[in-house]
Amino acid sequence: MKVKITYLDTAMALIEIGSLRILTDPVLDEAGTTYDDGVISLEKTSAAAISPQELGRIDAVLLSHDQHSDNLDTRGRELLARVSQIVTTPEAAQRLGGRAIGLSPWQETRVVAADGFTVKVTAAPAQHGPDGTEELTGTVTGFLIDWDGRTAQGPIYISGDTVPFAGTAEIVARVAPVGLALLHMGHVSPGPDAGIFFSMSSGEGADYGDALGADVIIPLHFDGWKHFSEPNASAIETLGKAKTGSRTQWLAPRESLDLEM
Q1: Which of 2, 30, 232, 248 is deepest in the core (most CB within 10 A)?
Q2: Contact 91, 181 (CB under 8 A)
Q3: Among the listed residues 160, 116, 142, 130, the one whose alpha carbon sits nearest the alpha carbon of residue 19
Q4: Is there a contact between 24 and 64 (Cβ–Cβ < 8 Å)?
Q5: 140 CB contacts (<8 Å, ≥6 apart)?
Q6: Taking phi first (over 0 means left), then psi (-120 to 50 degrees means alpha), and beta for anything else, what does residue 224 get?
Q7: How far apart are CA 250 and CA 252, in angstroms?
Q8: Helix H segments across the chain?
Q9: Sequence-distant (≥ 6) Cβ neighbours of residue 231 within 8 angstroms
Q10: Spatial separation of the C-alpha atoms in residues 234 and 155, rounded to whole Å
Q11: Within 13 Å and on the Cβ side, how many CA atoms surround 59?
């Protein structure tokens, strides 16, 4: 199966599997937009990578969570209105209503293209901060995408905004190896001296990608916002020196990677 991954902005990627077009975490607002999401004041620093019109047909959105604007912003919410299939957390599905399907960890659903091609989407555990911060940050999810006839060693895995925790160890135990891992990084922090982080660092991402046995690793959620604490140059250097360095593909906005899976 031909698979095409196009990195767009933050954690937004277009995943094309055969005829099926899946978008993750839509972020479409312009640079300078600010949001007050409660835990951290957010400011977008990167220009919008693409317009909703340029995106074209989207068959489904996989939304890791709806409560933080760096994963679903104002124009991203508007986009959801024209998407027939939305898969997210149970809490986000209740807030979004309509066509949103909420999955708890290890629950699954089917996403179908217009021509009938179908993939299985499974919710994967994710935790948006250290143990004890779940009430503060809210529920998040990762995803596994699989389909009949897959030739890669394992499915596509999307981490969602997570830190290493018992759930990521469970994913390694139950799923590894994976064919492709899209890992949310950025080492999000509420401030330079806070000592608390809400997403993976590049070092944690490298270790996790290695544990997953991923054929290919594509970093997401690493740039474009003031609250991302790890500079890109440092992250690129760290991942380049890691055991997974040769398997890591950094994509610029609107850059694509073609795979056979």
Answers
A1: 248
A2: no
A3: 116
A4: yes
A5: 64, 65, 89, 126, 127, 128, 160, 161, 162
A6: left
A7: 7
A8: 52-55, 74-80, 90-96, 134-137, 166-175, 202-212, 232-241
A9: none
A10: 29
A11: 19
Which pair of structure tokens corresponds to residue 223?
């740039």
Residues 6 or more apart whose CB falls under 8 angstroms from that of 19 comprise 113, 114, 115, 117
pLDDT tens string 175-188: 999 999 999 999 98
Distances from the Cα of 78 to the Cαs of 52, 81, 173, in angstroms?
9, 6, 38
Q: Which helix (H) or strand (E) holds 220?
A: strand 216-220
pTM greater than 0.90 = yes
Q: Is 36 helix (H, G, I), strand (E, B) or coil?
A: strand
- Relative to beta strand 20-24, strand 60-62 is parallel
Q: Hey, what amino acid is at 144? A: L
| Sheet strand arrangement including 156-158 | 108-112, 118-124, 142-146, 156-158, 180-184, 216-220
How sure is the predictor about 39, in pLDDT bands with cuts at 50, 70 and 90? low
Q: What is the pLDDT of residues 117-154, one digit of tens each?
A: 999 999 999 999 999 999 889 999 999 999 999 999 99
